[in-house]
């Protein structure tokens, strides 16, 4: 696991800038989870919300899979944690769910995301549609959406972590 974040360049070209900010946010979420045991990573520390740090990591594994596999590459492997019967399954954790497994799955999905994105130009249109409008987005749009998704959930992670042990920052 990372103990540092890569700071995005302030002068990079567009693609490097987008990839830099996405990696920055991926690393931020990992930092928010660093140093906690499985029990605290599973803890939904802001009732009545079911959000937990491990749940957020599992959610982001799903999001990486959906946007970079299913939508961008047209490779629908199906969901990892959720189902039609349990659409929020990534947040429904049990004692059997571990950080080691959640982190590995998340990193595996990030690796696939990087490979799939490397094969496309920013203006390339995805193979599949997803979302409210049912339109196939460009890779540029997917990068922008992913940065937004991580930024929003990193805000949640800030609050969860502070509630667990008082840690702030990163």
TrEMBL record:
Any Pfam family: MST
Name this protein carries in UniProt: DinB family protein
Organism: Streptomyces neyagawaensis
Organismal lineage: Bacteria, Bacillati, Actinomycetota, Actinomycetes, Kitasatosporales
């Amino acid at each position: 696991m990372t103990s540092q974040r890569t700071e995005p360049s302030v002068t990079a070209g567009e693609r490097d800038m987008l990839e830099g900010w996405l990696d920055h946010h991926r690393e931020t979420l990992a930092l928010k989870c660093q140093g906690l045991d499985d029990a605290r990573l599973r803890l939904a520390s802001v009732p009545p919300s079911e959000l937990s740090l491990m749940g957020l990591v599992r959610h982001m594994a799903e999001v990486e899979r959906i946007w970079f596999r299913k939508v961008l590459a047209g490779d629908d492997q199906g969901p990892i944690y959720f189902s039609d019967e349990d659409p929020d399954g990534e947040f429904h954790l049990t004692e059997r769910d571990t950080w080691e497994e959640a982190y590995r799955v998340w990193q595996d999905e990030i690796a696939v995301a990087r490979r799939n994105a490397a094969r496309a130009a920013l203006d390339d249109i995805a193979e599949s549609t997803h979302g409210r409008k049912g339109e196939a987005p460009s890779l540029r749009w997917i990068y922008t959406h992913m940065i937004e998704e991580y930024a929003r959930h990193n805000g949640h992670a800030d609050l969860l972590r502070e509630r667990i042990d008082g840690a702030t920052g990163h």
